């Protein structure tokens, strides 16, 4: 019997790995192990022999389990030491920090143009995106029954007030009206912002886009002044020569009114989806403020006149960066946006 115990002990002590030891544990200490064998013939023993055998088994169990446990603990601590040796942790290394974001390309261009116009003495105004019918249409010489309303299909709200029903503004021109209501004359203002139209979306149309309105009211403002400011603006934005053309354009709040087009910077002229195959992109509708609009806002048109323009900010960004599909701009896709991280604005 002692031989059995000795050889079991020998097997335990010669286990070289934790896995070996586990196999030995099952063989030696398990239900069919040495200890079980020692108690197998218990039934045939006398009472005294049983006592002696019981003591022997207990002692053997003690010995074997102690040997097993100490080896198991040694393997566990060796494994832990090996893991600690292989891993590396330096608590003094600075944390990686927040990944810096960047401004959307439309915001970048908007801020650039704001800086330019501020340097020319213009104020930057903000206006509500939910407008009154009065500010968006009537005060701009677009009464309810006027066909020009059809040019700007909008989203109407059920609610309204004394200034007519509320709507999502279709252009930034209502801020012209708000400027005339609140600023002293002479005035120079721009108003960048988000506008909405009930459009079906394609490569060059969105229901939500950005414009930048500009207005100057003074004495003896001429088309020459208007063209000067527009050229200054475009050369600052594109930082190169762009070909422009001026066509007559109809907007009820300017007279005369123009469409200032630029040569398509995506295709350079032959035609593409962005310029609707025409080679030209409408970028800058503008004109001299219609005297009716001045007098509707309480300004005497015999004393004052001015110009106004409405720059398509979204389209401008597309031209500057040769983006061929307007839908990228509001996609929220970081693969697109990451391309516009400029050093000037990142942080
Ligand atoms: N608000 C006009 C539009 O969105 C553009 C415009 C602005 C035209 C200012 C002339 C003067 O279509």
Question: Layout of helices and strands, plus pairs?
Answer:
Layout: H1 2-13, H2 18-29, H3 34-38, H4 47-86, H5 105-119, E1 123-124, E2 130-132, H6 133-136, E3 156-161, E4 164-168, H7 174-182, E5 187-196, E6 208-218, H8 223-238, E7 244-248, E8 254-263, E9 280-289, H9 291-296, E10 305-312, H10 313-321, H11 334-337
Parallel strand pairs: 1-5
Antiparallel strand pairs: 2-4, 3-4, 5-6, 6-10, 7-8, 8-9, 9-10
This protein binds phenylalanine (PHE).
Descriptive notes:
A seven-stranded mixed β-sheet has the order 1-5-6-10-9-8-7, with helices on both faces. Strand 7 (244-248) and strand 8 form a beta hairpin. The chain is built from eleven helices and ten strands. It folds into two domains: 2-86; 105-340, BirA Bifunctional Protein, domain 2. Helix 2 (18-29) runs antiparallel to helix 4 (47-86). It is an alpha+beta fold and 347 residues long. Residues 171, 173, 251, 254, 257, 285-287, 308-310 line the site of phenylalanine.
């Amino acid at each position: 019997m002692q031989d059995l115990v000795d050889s079991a002990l020998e097997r335990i002590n010669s286990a070289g790995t934790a896995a070996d030891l586990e196999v030995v544990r099952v063989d030696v200490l398990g239900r069919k192990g040495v200890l079980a064998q020692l108690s197998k013939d218990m039934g045939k023993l006398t009472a005294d022999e049983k006592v002696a055998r019981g003591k022997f088994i207990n002692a053997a169990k003690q010995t074997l389990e102690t040997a097993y446990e100490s080896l198991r603990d040694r393997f566990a601590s060796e494994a832990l030491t090996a893991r600690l040796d292989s891993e590396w942790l330096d608590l003094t290394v600075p944390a990686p920090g927040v990944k810096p974001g960047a401004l959307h390309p439309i915001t970048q261009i908007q801020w650039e143009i704001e800086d330019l116009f501020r340097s020319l003495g213009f104020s930057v105004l903000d206006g509500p995106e939910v407008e009154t019918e009065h500010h968006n249409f009537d005060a701009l010489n677009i009464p309810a029954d006027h066909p020009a309303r059809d040019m700007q299909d909008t989203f109407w709200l059920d609610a309204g007030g004394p200034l007519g029903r509320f709507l999502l503004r279709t252009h930034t021109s209502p801020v012209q009206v708000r400027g005339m209501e609140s600023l002293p004359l002479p005035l120079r203002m721009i108003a960048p912002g988000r506008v909405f139209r009930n459009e079906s979306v394609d490569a060059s149309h969105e229901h939500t886009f950005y414009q930048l309105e500009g207005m100057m009211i003074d004495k003896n403002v001429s088309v020459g002044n208007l063209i000067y400011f527009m050229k200054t603006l475009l050369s600052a934005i594109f930082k190169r020569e762009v070909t422009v053309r001026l066509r007559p354009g109809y907007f009820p709040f300017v007279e005369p009114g123009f469409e200032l087009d630029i040569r398509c910077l995506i295709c350079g002229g032959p035609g593409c989806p962005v310029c609707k195959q025409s080679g030209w992109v409408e970028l800058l509708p503008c004109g001299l403020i219609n005297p009716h609009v001045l007098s509707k806002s309480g300004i005497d048109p015999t004393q004052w006149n001015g110009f106004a323009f409405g720059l398509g900010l979204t389209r401008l960004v597309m031209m500057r960066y040769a983006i061929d599909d307007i839908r990228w701009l509001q996609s929220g896709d970081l693969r697109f946006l990451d391309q516009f991280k400029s050093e000037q604005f990142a942080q």
